[in-house]
Amino acid sequence: MSTVRIPPTLRTSTGGEKRVDVPGDTVRAVVAALVVAHPGLEAQLLGQDGDLNAFVNAFLNDTDIRHLQGLDTPVTDRDTLSLLPAMAGG
Amino acid sequence: MAIETPSAPISHTGLRILGMRCRNCGAEQPIGLDYVCPACFGPLEVAYDYAVIGASLTRETITARAPGIWRYAELLPVDAPPARGLPVGSTPLLLADRLAPTLGLDRLWIKDDTRNPSLSFKDRAVAVAAARALEFGVEALACASTGNLAGATAAAAAAVGLPAYVFIPADLEPAKVDHALAYGATVVPIEGTYDDVNRLCLEVADETGWGFVNINLRPFYAEGSKTLAYEIAESLGWRSPDVVVAPVASGAMFTRVARGFEELADLGLIDRRPIRFVGGQAAGCAPVATAWAAGTDVIEPVRTPDTIVRSLAIGNPADGRYVVELVNETKGSLEAIEDEITAAAIRDVARLEGIYPETAGGVTLAAAAAARRRGVIRPDDEVVALLTGNGLKTPDARSLGHGDGIARPGQPGLAPAIRPSLTAFERWLDGSAS
Q1: Global pTM?
Q2: Are residues A9 and B203, on separate chains, in Cβ contact within 8 Å?
Q3: Interface pTM (ipTM) of the complex?
């Protein structure tokens, strides 16, 4: 099981859980399993095409998955996936 | 430090601020520290009732007020101007007629935001965020910064009496680090890029409840940049220019300047005329300019920015798609500028106009020249360029990032040390003249 870190905006859909352990061998599979476990997350996280919403950034062990292999990035049991809003500017 | 309060009170005849609205899906939320739409994860923005604002806000009301951003208080997301804060805004709009011909321009105005309290335009955004932070009762003010925001947050926190935590990339320019330290901030260097700093701060903001000006206070912070447009319009005698040229990092300021002009036109304070928006990015970190040139609004993040222009080194800009949209709608352009050109532009504006901007200012002026060559800026256009930060923050920029920015013998313009005698002086003068 990989760990997904849940930001406060999404915690209403996870019963307040900050971390959720779900199975999956790619980021896509992990997100799919997460949405099955907590169906309320689907509209927030996924677009109609099944990809992540434009405003969702995913980080595998603190690296943006767009710098890896995107949703196809392999995931192991030791990995942590963070879902964060696209928000940057200093 | 006390600010000057507007001499005319702001109107409370109706509910001026309606709440927060998602820019992406339009879902509404009450005002608070939430910054992300619970429905779609999109960015929340402040929603106003412009009918209420328009009923009382006139040119005369504004011009009767004291200088500073709070003279436009009705268009800012606070219930009332804050009792404490720094005097921000009302910076000059200067006709740059010595520099203009070197850029191929006929009429160039410089909005000189190098002279805000902490020497950058960020003071505008932070003043609004800090005012809201006090209302929300946060324990500390914080930010993720490429440098200018560090100083602005630290200074504003000092002025309102809150502790400041400033997160920066560990390799930031020393002058910017020292600047934030001077105001008593706690500076937290992070081993990584700005985007690493920002990602960490998103998580820290969630867990600490600190008021991060550019994260959980972002809906308010972003609004502060609109005052650049209000001031430009007022300085021009209540009208807009043909072209606005500004730097693009996250894209928040760039898009809010456009909205500021829109609001003034909506309220009938200026005539509605088309404005072309030209953005400048550093070639070593130009995700938005690259997307625009490729004809897409999907921004490919830059993982490792490589440029002296640290203040624009955001590889993953949140408002990038909105910048592309604005540039396309207004028939503007996005220009990617090489560091050598940026350094030369800083030298030119300092030498010809007596204004010394930091690196983003060099990018902006070079972008104006590039847009002129591209034909986006035409002969006879009236152009306003936003110089958003002070050159004292980036002393190594003129030498392209080599060295520490400290003048040493041999540097052009720096004479060798001479004895304090007229004879020695005359000998040197004769030698340098020959």
Answers
A1: 0.93
A2: no
A3: 0.90
